[in-house]
Amino acid sequence: MATIVYAMLTSLDGYIAGPSGDIDLPVPEEELHQHFNDEMRRTLIALCGRRMYETMRFWDSPEREIAAEEVERDFARAWRETPKIVFSTTLREVGPNARLVNGDAQAVARSLKSQTDGEISISGAELAGHLARAGLIDQYRLYMHPVVLGGGKPYFQSDLSLTLRPLGAKRLAQGVTLLRYAPTRIDN
């Protein structure tokens, strides 16, 4: 059975994007970027909400292969090699190695979880909130940057209530702290 993980960069005040909707967090430098490259390579399937998928499409571009930094080229390869399922009712097509689903995200996640061994990632706060309410997320990974955005898109949706058990913390490059948690129950 797969482990479903929701992992995102976040500010100290809990936002994954700033008030304008832009990802206003510092860009990962080589050491932190390599950590995310390794995480992407461990991911068997990436479940993406529409907005996060559209943001990450940047890595589909052939120009990424001529990026200045090897760590970026490596991430682009890992992104393209990872199968993606994109949940959207507005998109009509998706890029390479991606499948578009406009149906029940919970049913798809349940099926994938039971049929897969390894790690399935979730990208996107709304998709994560939807799957969290169904008890489908096994681990939350908050990569906390030492910045405060003061508002924007929160890591956890405002109407989601969970009780979590700490799994550990790790200091990473650029002052980022990885906090890992497992749900003990959904309080909604």
Automatic annotation (TrEMBL):
Give one Pfam family, short name only: RibD_C
Tell me which domain of life the UniProt entry assigns to the organism this sequence originates from: Bacteria
Concerning InterPro entries, the annotation shows:
DHFR-like_dom_sf, RibDG_C, Riboflavin_Biosynth_HTPR
Tell me which Gene3D superfamilies the record gives: Dihydrofolate Reductase, subunit A (3.40.430.10)
Residue intervals of the Bacterial bifunctional deaminase-reductase C-terminal domain: 3-177
PANTHER family according to UniProt: 2,5-DIAMINO-6-RIBOSYLAMINO-4(3H)-PYRIMIDINONE 5'-PHOSPHATE REDUCTASE, DIHYDROFOLATE REDUCTASE FAMILY PROTEIN (AFU_ORTHOLOGUE AFUA_8G06820)
Query: What is the designated name of this protein?
Result: Dihydrofolate reductase family protein
Q: What is the lineage of its organism?
A: Bacteria, Pseudomonadati, Pseudomonadota, Alphaproteobacteria, Hyphomicrobiales
